[in-house]
Amino acid sequence: MTTLRALMQPHRIVMLLLLVAVVIWCAVTLRWDWIPEYAPLALEGLWRTIWIMVVTCILGFALAVPLGLAQAVGPWYLAAPARAFCTIIRGTPLLLQIWLLYYGLGSLFPQIPWIRGSELWPYLRQAWPYAVLALTLSYAGYEGEVMRGAFSSVNKGQLEAANAFGMPRLTMFRRIWLPQAIRNVLPTLGGETILQLKATPLVATITVVELYAVSSRVRSDTFIVYEPLILLAVFYMIIAGIIALAFKRLEDRVPG
């Protein structure tokens, strides 16, 4: 009932009516006859977008935890490289990082005989490993700085109490420090995950076929410009909404 009352506010009713009008206008005046032909390619691009985002976020966060910990409490010989890595990643464009890895390492590997003859070569000759590596390092660089603040924000009294009771450092980290740090930055992690989703179109510049690459393919084949972009925006909004909802549910379930 409360939700219904919130939706019945005048400004929200006007926005809803405008949205319905835009949807009807798009359905009636724009061309959508190309969808059946490109639907399989679009589903492939959607799947690739999702798995690239999920894999790079998981791997990037796994790297961000030691990066943040090194900066928060590590000795200088660990803190300095971690800080330098985060600074470089955050200070350079992601597109530049993708190109440096793809056109740099990607052009260097073919000149090394033992790499060309290894079992990794069928993968290294493709574009997607460099896209995954670039997005993983980018996510790690940003989240490493976030985790630095998260580790520093955990109440030191709890850590001192656990240490006084003789709890091993690894157990203390696993049961107290890391869970509380993650809980403190869950809203930020949700926002960064959505930003990671929005960064995936950049991998189309190195021939990885994801959602944006599919819309570009439709535009180049049919000369239809607006319809693929509108549909692309809808897909991204739906995925972003699911991510935001998932993190909101996770925040509600995690005890404060």
UniProtKB/TrEMBL annotation:
PROSITE patterns: ABC_TM1 (PS50928). GO terms for biological process: amino acid transport. Residues 46-247 form the ABC transmembrane type-1 domain. Signal peptide: none annotated. Keywords: Cell inner membrane, Cell membrane, Membrane, Transmembrane, Transmembrane helix, Transport. It is found in: Cell inner membrane; Cell membrane. GO terms for molecular function: transmembrane transporter activity. Its main location: membrane. It is a multi-pass membrane protein. It comes from the Bacteria. One of its GO terms (cellular component) is ATP-binding cassette (ABC) transporter complex. The chain crosses the membrane at residues 12-30, 50-70, 223-247. Belongs to the binding-protein-dependent transport system permease family. HisMQ subfamily. This is Amino acid ABC transporter membrane protein 2, PAAT family.
